[in-house]
Specification:
Blueprint: H1 2-35, E1 42-48, E2 51-54, E3 57-66, E4 69-73, E5 78-83, E6 90-91, E7 96-100, H2 103-131, H3 137-163, E8 165-167, E9 172-174, E10 184-185, E11 190-195, E12 200-207, E13 219-223, E14 234-239, E15 249-256, E16 268-274, E17 279-285, E18 297-305, E19 311-319, E20 321-326, E21 329-334, E22 341-345, E23 356-358
Parallel strand pairs: 1-23
Antiparallel strand pairs: 1-22, 2-17, 3-12, 3-16, 4-11, 5-7, 5-10, 6-9, 7-8, 9-11, 12-15, 13-14, 13-16, 14-15, 17-21, 18-19, 20-21
Helix pairs in contact: 2-3
Amino acid sequence: MKRRMLQMLAVVTVLLVTLGAIKAMQIRAAIAQGASFQPPPEAVTTIVAQEVPWAATQTSIGTVAAVQGVLLSADLPGIVSNIDFDSGRRIQEGQVLVRLDTSQERAQLAAAEAQRDLAELNLKRSRQLLEKQVVAQAEFDAIAAEARQAEARVGEIKATIDRKQIRAPFAGIAGLRQVNLGQYLKGGDPVVQLQSMDPIYVNFSVPQQDVAALRTGAEVRISADSIALSGLSGRITAINSVIDEATRNVQVQATFHNPRGVLRPGMFVNVEVAAGSASQVIALPASAVNYAPYGSSVFIVTDMKAANGKPYRGVRQQFVRLGPGRGDQVAILKGVNPGDEVVTSGVFKLRNGAGIVINNSSQPGNDPAPRPEDS
């Protein structure tokens, strides 16, 4: 019995050793197969890096402001008797926009003119009598003073009538009128906005460390979403003499020609200011950059060898230092050399050493000043 148990134990031991050896051989074969496995190549697009002139620019957000803009209001109280303008139309300097009722003032003017005429007659008679020494000098001076007072009263009433005619202080575009016929206006009640549209200001701010690169007369370019601003030329006309203590920014003002009235006060625009001469940099499509918290990188195409010694086209991850962006492009300051073939699309599915297949039939955007048809 004991002998049989030993024989059985020996058989089981031999069986386990055999199974273990077979399994170990299978594991070694799988490891060898995994080590030699080459993932299928990824389809990408590429571009050959080249140096291009890159203008030194500063970007900011600007606000459009009228060179002259005012909310016209009533100077004196009165009832609106005439409205002589249309909302949104061009207004000439000095044009009467609104007339208030002046019937009472005109009646007072007629009475004052009659009193003035009488005072002038009395003054004329007194002068004749004074020459004949019939009246005293003091009496003549009193009559002359009354004549001047009567003349001043006429001028005062005429000025009141003129102040009840609201005129445009400068040429511009009228906004929406805020009065109606027959409406009673108090002094200071709003009538209409008036804005001078051509030329027009664009105000923006830049950090204090960038002010030294700006100068009066420098070219300014602007853009805005869904608005065609091509052909608008602008120049810096003023740089503020003080720095905002809260933001440490400096206010800058540029003047633009605006003949078509595309720019309107209150609109915000993207501002780009030329600041210095152009330099040569590597410009790549922004889609070529793999952005990551630990650093931005690109993938450079190079010839590689697999573990089995077979050559293939692969990519090498290269960390880069980025400069400013411009349209679809971004400036590469360090990490890429002219002539390097760089992957421009598909970077999110690549890793260092990955195989690739290049298909440049459809390339990503690479325009420094793109103009999308529908933004």
